[in-house]
Amino acid sequence: MNKTLIDQIGNTPLVKSMALNTNPNVNLYFKLEGNNPGGSVKDRAAYNMIKTALETNQINKDSKLIEATSGNTGIALAMIASLYKLNIELVMPDTATKERVQTMRAYGAKVTLHPDGIEGARDYAIQKVEEEGYFSFNQFSNPYNWQAHYKTTGPEIWRDTEGTITHFVSSMGTTGTIMGTSTFLKEQSEDVQIVGVQPTDGSKIPGIRKWPEAYLPKIFDASKVDQTIEVSREEAVEMTRRLAREEGILAGMSSGGATTAALKLAQTLERGTIVCIICDRGDRYLSSDLFA
């Protein structure tokens, strides 16, 4: 038994909705990415990006690493960086919950809070790369982000549904999860429908974005998403609370948004098997008003 922490990334549980789904002809499954050691789906991409950068000699233990993140990727990178004895600075919007900041610092990362949101954080990281010789993984354009899900998330879902999945639902932020999983599932069956979740105009939902054109992730390929469902912040918050109360799943707001979309979808289907990504754990939001 020589398993390491890294060996525990992936192979997360797939559990059936016991309460929220009311369509008897549709199976709705939640993929619990909060069960990853770093607490989110981003463990997969962070490990793949760091491992590949080391193997291809893009970085070493003397490298100055920096990454802009809204939270979960930063926690995952901080955790993996600590295992490889790498120094990393993580730049986040100053609205980030204190649990996220404290978790990154606990892993040994330097945390910089930026007043201009994730866009400002991205600009700050780019400036450090261009002017001070830092290395950024740039999750928004790094193919090893989505390829992590092509190699792991997609195959796990296909295996655990025994190839019966008809619809895959995922919130869209950096879009790595939906791009990689879509690529794999479509190779198994063109009939699998890929459903992306975005916020309604004016809604701010952490982890779900409608990017301005200048900041649209370069890894995003619209042809890999069959349908987009929009959800409001109010819907996402209420569904996050219902996930905890009715399904026993404590998750973040983007998971509530994805679940809202999955349930809207379920009501339109005569039959099917939906898999919805629950991207992280809710305990990193307890200081916010999410569960107030």
UniProtKB/TrEMBL annotation:
It comes from the Bacteria. Its cofactor is pyridoxal 5'-phosphate. Pathway: Amino-acid biosynthesis; L-cysteine biosynthesis; L-cysteine from L-serine: step 2/2. It catalyses: O-acetyl-L-serine + hydrogen sulfide = L-cysteine + acetate. Transmembrane segments: none annotated. Keywords: Amino-acid biosynthesis, Cysteine biosynthesis, Pyridoxal phosphate, Transferase. This is cysteine synthase.
